[in-house]
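Appendix B. One record, verbatim.
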Amino acid sequence: MKYNKRLGQHFIVDPLYIERIISVSEISSDDVVLEIGTGYGVLTKRLCEKAKIVISYEVDKKLFEISRKLLKSYNNLILLNDDALKTEYSFNKIVSNLPYYISKKFVYWLIKKSFNIATVTLQKDFVEKLISTPSSKNYRAISVVAQLAFNINICDKLPPTAFYPPPKVYSYIVRFEPKSQFKLDDSQIKIINQIFTFRGKKIRSLIKHFCRDKFYKLNLDENKIFDWEKRVEELHPLECLSLAKFLLEQK
């Protein structure tokens, strides 16, 4: 089983964890499933046996040719040698043993998509950022936007031995379900990321930077919509969203 280090390939090979991914994804015969990274088709086969249609993307040309031969008997499979994050297909579920290096890009992409359930394997350190709480060392903009957009459930912990080649770190099976009450737009996501460049600073300082000429007109001492003495990393996700909306209104 050959692999490409440049593409961060770590193929999931343990049947126990493959079945766990299938189980938590709740795949049925009505589902159209998007898979990011076909690999050698080990997970793809099980998806094809469960789902109505599987749309599987593999960016590695050599691996794509191998998997096309290995999976040729599945007539409900659409196999593509392309970037899955550019897909124009519709789907209701996503299942992926995700390459670690696209984890952050994947989450921001996922926010804009319409789906029911996404089940992916992610590096332990990245998952800890996603679920971090205010004032913790891993709390970042990605924590805020992910928690605003999704219900995030950690379903299982994967040892390095579940993969080939084994990575140096543990991974998690993570299930994302969209929160219907929140639809973050690009401007809100952008400004939340900008807010977190002020980690360690008080909101008052942040407002002064963003609002500049308007700062003194805002009269913060009388305007109590925020605790202006709080630091950025102390804000809960909903407070971050409110602050982002406030800053956008000042433009």
